[in-house]
Amino acid sequence: MKIASLFNKLSVIATGTLASILLASTAQAGLNDLRGAWINVDENTRGITKVVIGGEGASATLNTWGACHPSDCNWGEVAAMPLASSVSASPLSADRIMAHYSKSHATSLISAYMHGDALIIENATDFNDGRTDTFFRYTLKRMPVSIPPILMPNPILPLLPLLPVSPIETNLEQMEGAWMNIDDDTRGVTKIRVLVNGSTVRVKAWGSCHPTDCNWGWTQGIPLTASVGADPTSAERIMATWDQGFAKRTMVLKRRGQKLIAEMTTVYTDGRSDRFNTYILR
């Protein structure tokens, strides 16, 4: 695919190049709030059943289990990368982490963030055995297990309003079009163009620059479906990446009502803190 280049980039990042997202609950959250043992609220899930987030200070780890018979499959513990809303943010302010798992048949990108008292796990999987790539979201509750140690207090940071975690009624064709950021003064993504031809998707984005916006150019869009056997045209999300040399940007697009939501992860190669931003376009 496709997102494998992002996985390769993430795998060589030291755990010190970390930070946080600005998409969470109305309560203040940070890296320490993510740490602990979490279990899926759906006891009958066929996906991720539980996770343990550990680590100390600015370092984080993720251990994931998937539904198997007769007992859950342990995917193992991997280093996790916190993401920030700004390049100068402290890693300890992170309220989202990202990690990846590489298997013989697939590579999975796992994102975890707080929503109220729950932990939301998002799993984008790139299959290399011919199956359709997938995206799943899970809600987990905290288990009464201590993850030692929590060394630092959680900083108090201003948070954006939470975009509700709710089913998205859309399909691939409905994301096609020219979209403009609702914030005329944004310093991030200003507009996005999506072209759809069957299951083939192309995405172009522009970033805020002076005196005119910077054109990032066209890139392949990757439909993410809800099951491995689903028709790609039924995808409710599109993933796109841009390699700009100084930064690797990965964007996930989804429709919510009349708006297009763009969630973007930026991994810098020049020493700046990596970050996550959410943009709303119309």
Unreliable runs: 4-27, 145-160, 165-169
Secondary structure tally, helices: 2
Q: What's the arrangement of strands in the largest beta sheet?
A: 1-2-3-4-5-6-7-8
Q: Main beta sheet, described? A: 8 strands, antiparallel, barrel
Q: How does the overall form come out from the CA principal axes?
A: globular
Query: What is the CATH-assigned architecture of the largest domain?
Result: Beta Barrel
Distance between the termini: 29 Å
One letter per element, helices H and strands E, the order comes to HHEEEEEEEEEEEEEEEE
Strand content: over 45%
Q: What percent of the residues sit in helical stretches (DSSP H or I)?
A: under 10%
Model description:
- With 282 residues, the protein is mostly beta strands.
- It folds into two domains: 4-142, Lipocalin (Beta Barrel); 172-281, Beta Barrel (Lipocalin).
- Helices cover 4% and strands 46% of the residues.
- It contains two helices and 16 strands.
- It has helices spanning 4-11, 31-34, and strands at residues 36-40, 48-54, 60-66, 73-82, 96-102, 106-115, 118-127, 134-142, 177-180, 189-197, 200-207, 214-224, 237-243, 247-256, 259-268, 275-281.
- Strand 9 (177-180) and strand 10 form a beta hairpin.
- Residues 4-27, 145-160 and 165-169 have low confidence and may be disordered.
Describe what is shown at a glance:
With 282 residues, the protein is mainly beta.
Fold topology:
Layout: H1 4-11, H2 31-34, E1 36-40, E2 48-54, E3 60-66, E4 73-82, E5 96-102, E6 106-115, E7 118-127, E8 134-142, E9 177-180, E10 189-197, E11 200-207, E12 214-224, E13 237-243, E14 247-256, E15 259-268, E16 275-281
Antiparallel strand pairs: 1-2, 1-8, 2-3, 3-4, 4-5, 5-6, 6-7, 7-8, 9-10, 10-11, 11-12, 12-13, 13-14, 14-15, 15-16
